[in-house]
Amino acid sequence: MGISRLIVKHCDEIKAGLSAVWEVVKAFFAQWGDKLIPLLGPFFGVPPMIVKHWEDIKEGLLALWQRIKIWQSSCLTTQRMDSIRYGMALRIFPLASGS
Predict the structure, then answer these.
(1) Are residues 63 and 36 in the same domain?
(2) How far apart are the first and last CA of the chain?
(3) Phi, psi torsion values for 95, nearest 5 degrees
(4) Quick one: 39 and 11 in the same domain?
(5) pTM of the predicted model as reported, rounded to 2 decimal places
(6) pLDDT in tens, the chain (99 residues)
(7) In Å, how far from its chain's centre is CA 72?
(8) Are residues 3 and 41 in the same domain?
(9) How many angstroms separate the Cα of 28 from the Cα of each of 14, 40, 55?
(10) Domains held by the chain: number
(11) E strand or H helix at 78, and its extent?
């Protein structure tokens, strides 16, 4: 017998079996659904949100990187200026050696 004939012949049993499976699935999610959503959300919810908002995320990260570069540059400039000032101060007021 072909598969289609078997399906037609046992249609009522297949329908009853699938309905029973569906009821079990519904009962499972009715009981555990609220507990599963926080666990599964990061896997199914976050990646689509990242894809959807990628341009905004990218712009924000680039702006943050620019601020970090400016801050680092100003720190290095301040260190250089402090070194220059310290060197000039040593020329004007040399440290006493060995006294």
Answers:
(1) no
(2) 112
(3) -70, 140
(4) yes
(5) 0.40
(6) 688 888 888 888 999 999 999 999 999 988 988 888 778 877 777 888 888 999 999 999 999 999 988 888 777 677 677 777 767 666 776 665 554
(7) 26
(8) yes
(9) 21, 15, 38
(10) 2
(11) helix 54-92
